[in-house]
Amino acid sequence: MLPRVGEPITGAGRYQRSTMVGAGGMGVVHRGFDRVLRREVAIKTLQSDLARDAASRQRMLREARAVAGLNHPSIVQLYDLFEDDEGTLSLVFEYVDGQSLSSRIHKHGRLPIASVARIAEERVGALAAAHAAGGVHRDIKPSNVLLRHPEGRAVLLDFGIARTADDAQRSGPDAFQATSSDITGPGMVLGTPGYMAPEQVDAQHRIGPRTDQFQLAVTLFEALAGRLPWPDRSRGIVNIEKAQSLADVDPALVEVDAVIAHALATDVEQRYADVRLFGDAFQAAVRGETARAPASLVPLAPRRTAPTA
Question: Could you give the residue numbers annotated as active site?
């Protein structure tokens, strides 16, 4: 069972829970307080029914290792990991006072291009740092982007299905690469269907930094359009011809749409070589400069607007 609100959750009683601030398929997140350092924290604890599940514990350990190896202002900081008297794992993160990007979109719909450009810049910086360290997030989506109060800086959360170079026990360019079944098992897929890249659905394809690039492109499209770029992603299957155009939302976004279209390519090799190049092209398009894809990219077919029926 999870400790009750206000109940100490280590033998020394260092951390104390208060209100629940979030929950997912694997963990429950509470606002908490560090009695030793006297600061607010966020405490993520495995769901009670997963506390003894070896795979779930391994995923939480993977998240801890992924975040602990990163130091970037736009990536949530990990403070501690502990196991309580009942053997339940918890992670202690910095407490970020803010609102998720998904909540902002739900409340306001389309966001101003200047706000999205800033979010994009910060997300690109965070992902570039993760990729340089040999990691791949694999679950980029608006609910995993928290906008700090009051300045609105975007912070990346939830590395629960991240892949690290240490996991792969490899080095060099292939350190990132993993098939979608590496941390799941036969027939299982991890990710969020509305944002998953094609290679996450097909266990035979390699997952890498360009997977994060695809998901970031979906996230930015949603922030600019107030909706996903396709009418139905419930099965996580990409049909690039059904990707709707940002130009249908706002003709002024045609150059931005051209950049996002390349990042959303079904073929991994047709995306930008790395997330920095995607970010640079996105910012150039926001400034009104003509979007030019790297020479290595084959132009994609023209966008087609999905049927509205």
Answer: 139
Q: How far is CA 204 from CA 97, 177, 178, 183, 200, in A?
A: 40, 12, 10, 14, 9
Please give the helix or strand (H or E) that residue 21 lies within, else none: strand 15-23
Whether 75 and 125 have beta carbons less than 8 Å apart is answered as no
Q: Which residues contact 223 (CB under 8 A, 6 or more apart)?
A: 101, 105, 110, 111, 115, 116, 119, 142
Distance CA 215, CA 136 (A): 11
245 Cβ contact partners less than 8 Å away, ≥ 6 residues apart: 254, 257, 303, 305
With vertex at residue 26, the alpha carbon angle to CA 24 and CA 30, rounded to the nearest 5 degrees, is 60
Question: Nearest to residue 214, comparing CAs of 157, 274, 289?
Answer: 274
Please tell me the chain's helix, strand, coil percentages from 3-state DSSP, rounded to the nearest 5: 35, 20, 45
- Per-residue pLDDT tens digits for 76-122: 898 998 888 777 888 899 999 999 999 999 999 999 999 999 999 99
Measured from the Cβ of residue 247, the count of other Cβ atoms closer than 10 Å reads: 16
- Over residues 25-37, the pLDDT tens digits come to 677 889 999 999 9
* Pair 179, 213: CB distance under 8 Å: no
Whether the CA torsion 221, 222, 227, 233 is positive or negative: it is: positive
* Residue in 214, 222, 221, 189 with CA at minimum distance from that of residue 266: 214
What are the pLDDT digits (tens) for 149-185? 887 889 998 775 445 444 443 333 333 333 333 334 4
Find out whether 77 and 66 touch, Cβ atoms under 8 Å: no
